[in-house]
Structures are given as structure tokens and as C-alpha cells.
Amino acid sequence: MNKKMLGVFVSLLAVAMLVTPLVSAKPSAEKNNPKFLSFVWHSENGASTPEEVMTNPPWAEAGEIIVTHTQAVWSLNPAGNNYVQIGVNTPIPIDAVAGYEGVLYVQSVAHSPTSSSLNYRVYEKIMWGDNYIEIMCLERASLELLPDPPYFSFYASGTFNGHGEIDGQKVQVMGIREGFADPAIGFVLECTGTIQFLGNAP
In terms of pTM, does the model score above 0.85? Predict the structure, then answer.
């Protein structure tokens, strides 16, 4: 074998050695690639049960409520359409009692007797079967009392993120959160974003 042929052979051997690990790693790399799908958490006509309420900063005048801080349990309405939807799959109904836990912290600032702004921190756990997702939401809202039906105007928006486990895989969720009054449905809360599958849970 002359030197030219030997050089070509060595070059081809080096390329083959470099390519082989990449090819053998490809199947496992595909398994570990993150997978994103659309994610929706929808609930209707939930209700809060205040556990602790603190009103007024020290500088407020006697009898005047300016700022209220409330810690409350948030519960789903069993008659509401409460569901999780992942990708284009059929929505998964969430049991209002066995499938949900919620706590919220609210700072309410009264601008007038009929108008307030609110800041929320909401912690939720959604469960079905052996699956669960824990979510934290941050949102701001405005509330105005009206003299005629529906007697109030409400809109909230913010962000959410969370984690959990679905079918033995760790997942992460994130996106935007909205709350609003729908004349046909009532009070609606909806988280819309993405869910990322992170691989098998330990």
C-alpha cells in the first residue's frame, strides 16, 4: 500500500471513528429530547374561603379600609366544567374535591366604594389518577361593582409555572393565566401555555 492510499485509508478510519459515537448516541438522544405540547387548565365558578384577613396600613384613617391582605382556601365548584387538556387529546375532567387543592393570597386596594385593584398569588395542585401538576400563579385584577346584572366587572391576567408527574414522566408547565366573568358561564379561570415532558421520574 503506497503512502497516498495509506493516507486516504487513515483519513477514512478517523472519520468513521468520529461518526460512530454520534450514530450510536442518536436513539438515546431522541428519547431524552424535551417534548412540548399545548396545555390548558380550565375551571369555572370557584370560590374562596378566607382564613386570615388583615386590613389597613398604619397610616390609614380610622374606619377607612384602604388595603386588605387575605389568605384563603380556593375551592372548585363541583358543577363547574373543570378540566386539563394536553395537546389535542380529550380534556381530562378534574374532580372538584378529590382532584384539587388551592390556596390564594390577595392584596386588595380600594380606589372607591365600587372599584378595587387586586394582586394574587395562587398555589394549586391538580390531580387525576396517579398524575398531578402543582402550579403557582401571579396575577393582577380589577374589580368594579355594577348597579345592574351581572353586578360586577372582573378581569385578571398574569403568568403561571409549575411541575408534576404524568404517566411516570416528570413535566413542567408555564404560560399565561386569565380570570374573567363570562355572562353565559360565570366566573372563569384559565391557564393556557405549554407542557414539557422531561423524562422518566426517578
Answer: no
Note the pLDDT of residue 7: 46
Residue 65 lies in a domain: yes
Strands 131-145 and 83-86: unpaired
Total structural domains in the chain?
A: 1
- Residue 10, in any domain of the structure: no
On whether the CB atoms of residues 48 and 73 are closer than 8 A, the answer is yes
Residue 119 lies in a domain: yes
Domain coverage including residue 45: 33-200
Per residue in 124-168, pLDDT tens? 999 999 999 999 999 999 999 888 877 788 999 999 999 999 999
Give tens-digit pLDDT for 10-29.
Answer: 343 343 333 333 333 333 33
Q: What is the DSSP annotation of the chain?
A: --HHHHHHHHHHHHHHHHHHHHHHHHHHHHHHS-EEEEEEEEEES-EEEEEEEEE--TTSPTT---EEEEEEEEE--TTS--EEEETTSPPEE--TTTTEEEEEEEEEEEEETTEEEEEEEEEEEEEETTEEEEEEEEEEEEEEE-SSTT-EEEEEEEEEEEEEEETTEEEEEEEEEEEEEETTTEEEEEEEEEEEEEEE--
Domain membership of residue 24 (yes or no) is no
What would the mean pLDDT of 82-94 be, rounded to a whole number?
96
